[in-house]
Amino acid sequence: MKPPKFEYYKPATLEEALNLLEEAGDDGKIIAGGQSLVPIMNMRLASPKCLIDINGLEELSYIKNEDNTLKIGTLTRQSDVEQSEMVANVCGLLAEAITQIGHVQTRNRGTIGGSIVHADPSAELPLALLTLNGSVQITSKDEVRTVAAEDFFITYLTTDIMPTEVLTEVTIPLMEEKSGYSFQEIARRHGDFALVAAACHMTVDDEGLITAVRLALGGVEAIPLLIGDAEDILTGEQLSDSLLAQVAESVEMESDPESDLHASSEYRTHLAKVLTKRVLTQAYERARG
Amino acid sequence: MGKHEIEVTINGKVYQEEVEPRMLLSDFIRDVCGLTGTHVGCEHGVCGACTINVNGTAVRSCLMFAIQADGQQVQTVEGLSNNHELTDLQKNFIECHGLQCGFCTAGILMSTEDYLEKNPNPSSKEIKEMLSGHLCRCTGYDGIVKAIEKTIEERNQSVLS
Amino acid sequence: MTNVIGKSATRVEDKRLLTGQGKYIDDLGTKVNTGHAAILRSSHPHAYIKSIDKEAALKMPGVKGIITGEDIRGLVKPFSVGVMAPVEYYPLAIDKVRYVGEPVAIIVAKDRYAAEDALEKIKVVYESLPPLVGIERALEEDAPILHENVGSNIANHREFNYGDVDKAFEEADRIVKHKFNFPKYTATPVETYGVVAEYDPAHDQYTVQANFHGPFVIHSIMAQALQIPSNKLRIIVPKDIGGSYGIKAGIFPYIVLCGLASKLIGCPVKWIEDRQEHLSSSASGTDRVTYIEAAVENSGKVTGLRMKMIDNVGAYIRAPEPASLYRNHANSTGAYDIQNLHIDAYAIMTNKSPTGLIRGYGGQELYFPLERIMQEVAKELNMDHADVIRKNLVKEAQFPYKTASGGTYDSGNYEESFELALATGKYEEFRKKQEEARKNGKILGVGLACIVEPSGSNMGYITVALTPEERAGSLPKSGAAEAATVSMDPLGSVNVRISTTPSGQGHETVAAQIVSEVLGLPREQINVVAELDTSTSAWSIASGSYSSRFASLGSSAIYYAAHKVRTKLFKIAADQLNVKEADLELEKGSIFVKNNPDKKFSVKRAAGLAHWHPTSLPDGMEPGIYETYYYTADVAQAPNEQDMINSSVTYGFVADMVTVEIDPDTAEVKIIDYFTVHDAGKLLNPLIVDGQIMGGLAHGLGGALYEELAYDKNGQFLTGSFMDYLCPTAPEIPNVTIKHTESPSPLTPLGAKGLGEGNTMSAPVAVANAVSDALAHLDIMIDDLPLSPTRIWKLMGEAKEKVTTP
Ligand SMILES: Cc1cc2nc3c(=O)[nH]c(=O)nc-3n(C[C@@H](O)[C@H](O)[C@H](O)COP(=O)(O)OP(=O)(O)OC[C@H]3O[C@@H](n4cnc5c(N)ncnc54)[C@H](O)[C@@H]3O)c2cc1C
Ligand code: FES
Ligand code: FES
To answer: A120 in ligand 1 pocket by Cβ < 6 Å?
Structure first.
């Protein structure tokens, strides 16, 4: 298991990185934390001709709270987000999701942007980003564009990003006062990719009526799946068993998971329903305080 | 493109070598620098045997290219003990029978040292979660957890006194 | 110093391993011209090789040579194996591939990177054949045949009848029966296989370093395959092996392959297996289908057993298979007094990777159906499972107990150990808790298992694969020999050389403990050499690290070799002091007269005389102090005409109680507590003992819940990385309570028995019984592993459907 040959560049600035990407075209590949890319290179499932290492771009590593928007530079290590008190205070869902990615040692190196661009269907960060209605900032030589998470994921391991572009920043609008969240997953072992993951973010008024809710699932489709029906079913209501059942039914309708060794399609669908109820319940309880 | 010259500081010693960009850091440490205490068990990031510290943080050396460590500070298991004097953690691995074949051990020591530095008082559950990044097929992890717990206890006591 | 045996001494191995100074195969220096190998492997489960084009690959930079099956045809004989079926197994596929991962070509280049570059350029044209995956499918008339010259997929078939089975079944009040599947899984040592082979044309000799934990029978098999005198194959095993659990015995085809490559290409060849290769192609355990039937009295007493066992040895039967079927032959009835036994044993071949030794070898496959059926008997009779076990356990007064199939359980008190397990786990209390919990919609269960843990394999057992008539045609095989050498140099320093090829079990430590005690010297002064060299070490056809043979056999050889040294020292001292040997005593490096301790002679001085001044030695005594002892146990006899065989030397006992909780929504199994009671005779080093038990248990839990080498129905391999093949990590290991009872073995000088495999054998079925118990209200049958949530959820769904749609 040794990687194939490639050329290696380590740009000192974003501009330089973008120039290199432009030059390399389809042959170029960014390496960030390498926690997904290097294993598949070692297995020779990927053989990029030209690796552009963005680990020198310190300016892409930051966590900021600006105008009630959480901004995280793409190169920020997952463990930096995990250890950030600010993130824990203002964005509990993200903080909870992060701890479930792999292991301490992979989080020490793996980056926020890398996970989102890698776009594994059961990965935690893409799911968290979608649930939190976040977006990504994408930079190329010609432009800087912002793409909402809802539009970013296209299919299995594929996103809206072009080979000449760099994901530079992740932005997440922050929670309102009376809001609650939950992130839960079922995995075979601690630290494994989820069989199914579910995340929910919800706001509730003083009477306990739900004013807004976003529910999304990982592992049930080629991309993280936003359950739009949840909003329709739950808005203006207090959470109840019958409503939970209704949402679970929508989830069943909308998911079409694959079968593999570790979980059949039916089991994944079932887990999606179970987790839906669990995250909605927990988020509701947290929102009510 | 051929070889690149890199300079990596490992356990305080500077290694200046020419490498192909694709050479894994684990291979560089073992085969080029001759530090065979770092082991390789999977080369896809799961087993943890190859874990080392880069700039003070525990990472997989099989998931980095040597060229990425150019100019960086690396510590391996050979750099833990001082003049043959074992660290408290190493001693407790002996006391608590935290190793059998010893193949996983270097990686676990490197992870644990970094982790305890950042989290001096983890719970048993947290210790086990930290260890989830390492496979040990010999011990059932029991002796390892005990060795780490004993080390924490001793460090806390020495802080108190 | 005395009484070091039995102490929890810390290990002499640890310091070097903790500081990165271990000497594993990949750490050893190689000669400058060494080539590094990569192996091209079959992507097909079953296919003819039509052609291999290696031209482009040979032109790649750094390539030294490429060897294919065609190149070794005629140079190597098929590996011999202890069955009559004429299976031809070579280190590279010739003409045909029979499993995904089978070696097709070996590429040797300047480094592994270059070798892998060239590997991608080799073009192989295959012609696919229908794959054979299912165990029982292998026996069907129209099944694809793997080995045309065998004519069927059966590598071995034997039937055994002990006692009067038909009568037991005729007279039984009930017959409880079921079919169980045990999956294929492995042990994945964190260190993979590694070989450095060098052919020396001047002497026509192969010198191979490998992390092989033999040599035992396999050295002979390799020499025969290479068609050389066996002293032309020198195997050196490094000091440190990064775990094996049996798996590294399966390295032998690669030792031959790298040896041949070295000969043909003309440079030393080094090959370090990678993890993908290891998972797809290294030795693993067998998967097995067992049809089991128990003849039962209404009292719960089981009077007879019938087992049809179909063991899948993969694409090629190879040594030591079909031993997985017979390793537990003497203890086929486990911990129970059952004298009527029928066994119908098949070893069959399918398009999966070939199997071999693995921790627990054959035990988990045997005890899964046996211990499951005992619980089913309890269900059938509406009895408590614990009561059924009590009813059937071999009683204390019956020891040494003769089993139906010829075994002699040397010692034990099974009832006491079992009751201790129940008391430790608070069995009755848990039953109450379980009832309460059920009212609240919680699903709790408790599983029990009692198993006999054999250790120290009798070399003769494997010959029961042959009929008595077939056996008569060759030399009988017996014994369980192990050798050790203890020597003292001119200054009285002690070296101990062992041939037990440890891979983490602390043999150096225990050997030093034993010798320290016998020779009255501090443990720290004893140097133990664990490297094995077939050209210079004392070893036997049984030597190696398997079947938990160190504590029973290895330690005995060391003990007696040390005694030989002690005797010699006493003789010298007696002569010098002019007293009788019997009047002497040894303590703290000094030999003295018992009733006159001032009259003494130091050990160092005695050793000095033996070396510096041999003419002063008593008449007829050889100079020097260098003593080798070959130990074997008399009880390891060859099988008799009636196929009675005492397949192991000592038999320990394990009683487990495990409690689980199943999430009613997700069907995830959570182990609450695991209690295990072991009787392994006298414990040589309790610290090491508990470490061995924890390791074996973790592996058993892996088998119960996570680990499987899975293939799809087309024979494609599904678990080629550690992301798919799931080994338990620290958070997956539950609370474990270990307790010991000690019934010393009357057969070994130290009273010790082997251990470390017991829970690998017991945990899969103990957990299965717990899950079955937890789901008893749904009447669910657990007959397959691992107990993944997807599997349990399906069973729960089917059961609920049964309830709602009558
Ligand atoms: C043992 C193990 C367990 C793991 N478990 C999990 C898990 O449970 N959940 C989970 O989600 N992940 C898991 N991962 C993967 C996770 O650790 C990775 O961090 C993540 O998937 C990729 O991040 P990275 O920074 O390492 O990216 P890299 O591996 O460097 O890159 C991944 C991909 O993203 C591209 N890329 C990276 N950064 C950018 C950028 N800024 N702009 C454009 N393209 C970019 C790369 O070109 C590449 O295609 C696991 C990994 C390991 C080794
Ligand atoms: S070798 Fe790096 S994690 Fe296994
Ligand atoms: S001590 Fe052998 S793998 Fe951990």
So the answer is: yes
Same fold, A60-173 and A179-287: no
The ipTM (two decimal places) reads 0.98
Q: Is B21 on the interface with C (CB under 8 A)?
A: no
Answer yes or no: are the C-beta atoms of C387 and C781 closer than 8 Å. no
DSSP class of C286: P
Please tell me whether the overall predicted TM-score, pTM, comes out greater than 0.90 for this model. Answer: yes
Using the atom order of ligand 3, give the atom closest to the CA of residue C504: 2
Asked if residues C275 and B41 have their Cβ atoms less than 8 Å apart, the reply is yes
Contacts of C781 (CB under 8 A, 6+ apart): C178, C772, C795
Residues C559, C618: one domain? Answer: yes
Q: Which domain holds residue C352?
A: 149-182+288-399
Class of domain A179-287: alpha beta
CATH number, domain with residue C174? 3.30.365.10
Residues of chain C with Cβ-Cβ distance to B125 below 8 Å are 731
Q: What's the CA gap between C85 and C154, in Å, rounded?
A: 8
**Nearest ligand to the C-alpha atom of residue C188:** 3
pLDDT (tens, 9 = 90+) of chain A, 289 residues, equals 999 999 999 999 999 999 999 999 999 999 999 999 999 999 999 999 999 999 999 999 999 999 999 999 999 999 999 999 999 999 999 999 999 999 999 999 999 999 999 999 999 999 999 999 999 999 999 999 999 999 999 999 999 999 999 999 999 999 776 799 999 999 999 999 999 999 999 999 999 999 999 999 999 999 999 999 999 999 999 999 999 999 999 999 999 999 999 999 999 999 999 999 999 999 999 999 8
Domain boundaries defined on chain A: 7-52, 60-173, 179-287
The answer to whether the CB of A179 falls within 8 A of the CB of A287 is: yes
Please confirm whether the linkage preceding C400 is cis (ω < 30° from 0). yes
Q: Which domain holds residue B22?
A: 4-79
Which 3 state secondary structure label does DSSP give C208?
A: strand
Asked if residue C615 is part of any domain, the answer here is yes
CATH of domain A60-173: 3.30.465.10
Total of domains in chain C: 3
Q: C677 in a domain, yes or no?
A: no
